[in-house]
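Notes, Module 5: Reading structure tokens.

Key idea: the token line is not a picture. It is a compressed description, and you learn to read it the same way you learned to read a sequence, by spotting repeated patterns. We will look at two proteins. The first is printed below with its tokens.
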Amino acid sequence: MLLDRVTLPPLVSLFSSTSSDPLVLATLGTAPGVTESFISLLEDSGDAKETLVAWQPAGTSNDLATRVASLAKQHQTNEHEHSADLKDQVLHLQAPDCRTTYARWGSLRKGKWKDDGLGVELPVVHLQVKDLGQAMFLDVAVVDDRGELLVVRASTWQTQARLHPALADEPPILHLPLRFPSASTSSSGTTPLLTSWTTISLPLARLLGSLSPPRRYKATTGVQVHATCRLRRVWFSEEEMTSEVDEAQMRRGALPELALFKAVT
């Protein structure tokens, strides 16, 4: 695995949409022949400065117009009345079928993770995600101390936690419900959210320990985020807490998280 022999700091960044080369470690996938399946980097506020990074080449100008129109509709339809967009660059993943369009880091497959896996041993993964009101899910592949692979999945359509047994070519899946907060579910019930961005934290070691029989977490081999959503950051930490990145510190060059490729070197 990429980092199985590397001593890691207590905080490791896998992806940051505001870095100079945010997708250097990522593998992107889109649906063949589907114009509205694409991934782009853009400014969250107003969908400005868009750069397509994965898409099916448009066959006609009408195809391109359809894609642009679908992006505009997506933003207008899912804009939160009381929430502010970010002025930062973010990663936008969109598709009619969320299974087809994804950004992946490392490996989630049985026969590949030993060679292509991340090998991050920090037990908590955090993702900054924007809810666009569409079906989306994310997968995190982990390996236990016996070398057995398991995928932790969180999706917007799942209603309760369920463990799916392994298949011939697929590892077992711990499927968790994913619910984004809204103004109606805020602590007071009336206070609107300031932003539709959410930090999702998965305590991987604790989740594996809750299984029957319990498993001991060893490392994360892969992370895969599926459409339709926006992604700002993915990082790992030692503690079960959301370690938000201080933007002012980053501009001063005192970034409290270390980029993954930096840790390798």
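Here is the second protein, with the sequence above and the tokens below, as before.
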Amino acid sequence: MKYLLPLMLLGTLAGCAQTPKNQTTYQKPNYETYITQGESFPISQFNDMKGETVELAEDKRKLVLLFATWCSDSQRFVKQLMASPLIADPDLQIIAIGREEDTQSLVNFSEKFATNFTMVADPERKIYSQFANAGVPRIILLDKKNRVVSTLIGEAPNTIEKVLW
């Protein structure tokens, strides 16, 4: 019995690594990141949830957030991001990519969390799978030339502190 509570807690904390729609049993993922510091970001434009084309700005740093609306870690990170000075930084472009999300789920999420940054639906993981195999939120920081500065897995409560650069 004394081992049951820690095991239950561990299973709860690892919840954002799995996919609620397709996965019936949980196995701890081997987190892999497919892009590394110094590499060029392979995407230069996205179609946002409004259907508009959004280019990566040439004169700004970028924060690319790979997230899921249902994930408590993703929700916490977005709340922290919205409360941080990053949200008002004119030198920073923020793009959030909803893993396995459709446009309506992003609209609902954006309204609920009062976001003011670009959101992109990725219903089939076509974007997400270029950068990682498991885990949300994922944060990719890019410099003004769209090179990777760092990548983070945002499951820790204080991930926003690592992003303030």
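Summary for the second protein:
- The chain has one domain: 4-163.
- The CA atoms of residues 18 and 25 lie 9 Å apart.
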